[in-house]
Amino acid sequence: MKDKRAIIIKGPQFQSVRDALRDILFQATRLEKRKFRTKWRSFLVNVDGSRRSINDFAPDELDQFRQLQGQENKLVDLVNRSILKCITCGRGNRNMVYNKAYDAWYCTVCYGLGLDHAQELRQERKKCRKKTVSFERKTIEDHSKTFL
Length: 148
What we know:
Layout: E1 4-7, H1 12-44, H2 59-80, E2 96-99, E3 104-107, H3 108-127, H4 135-146
Antiparallel strand pairs: 1-2, 2-3
Helix pairs in contact: 1-2, 3-4
């Protein structure tokens, strides 16, 4: 995918279709998360109904438990970085912009704030430019370039 890509839908009817599709995908991911949690909760409860500690798990049970947690975390990360919602504010009912440097989607509002902040940092840096560039300044400059 290109470095930056904006998906802007202007028509209200198309926006409602976009929002409905996002809702359907959110519901599907909620169901998957619920399945994962049901599976790993079965590890935490004994047959008699008492709660088990992770320290009581057998090595193979602990491996299975950690795999389930890892799969659930991977699903959550995929949803957070997808076009379904903004990685900064979490809203899903806005137009989105993709930032390849962070492999994430931002709503146009958050992306605009990041762009404004990046431009302010660049102006500030130009005012107090020194011949040597510190690591911190280079990092800030690299970060700001991702929004430009």
